[in-house]
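Below is how a single chain appears once it has passed through the pipeline. First comes the sequence as given, then the structure the pipeline wrote out for it. We keep one example in the README because the format questions we get most often are answered faster by looking than by reading.
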Amino acid sequence: MTPARILAVAAAAAGALALATTSSAGRHGGGTLVGTVGPGFTITLKQNGQLVNTIPAGTYTFVIHDMASIHAFSLDGPNGFAKDFTTVPFTGTKSVTVALKPGAYKYYCPPHESFMFKHFTVK
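Resulting structure:
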């Protein structure tokens, strides 16, 4: 093989490796999740404007908009995972970065948990 051919093969291999690395990175979770609680008796969690139902495991930044002093936003998950993003009587916006592992999660308003809750799955 000529030196030019060896260089071309090496460059092609490096390009394929870079593409494979980029492709596998796209399968991992992460990004921003936007939660809103209140002002009425509503609670939501969205990614890119869509309600979260199933997302890949990864590190996410939760941006929580707590719009009523009678509400709060909490998250429970597998293996005892629990996180209170806001508490009563806080109103405003908070951002928290959390690593989500595979399993079932529930977000809810603790004072009104019996009817202000939703579930999502991390795979």
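Residues 28-122 form a domain with the Immunoglobulin-like fold (CATH 2.60.40.420).

See the next section for the split statistics.
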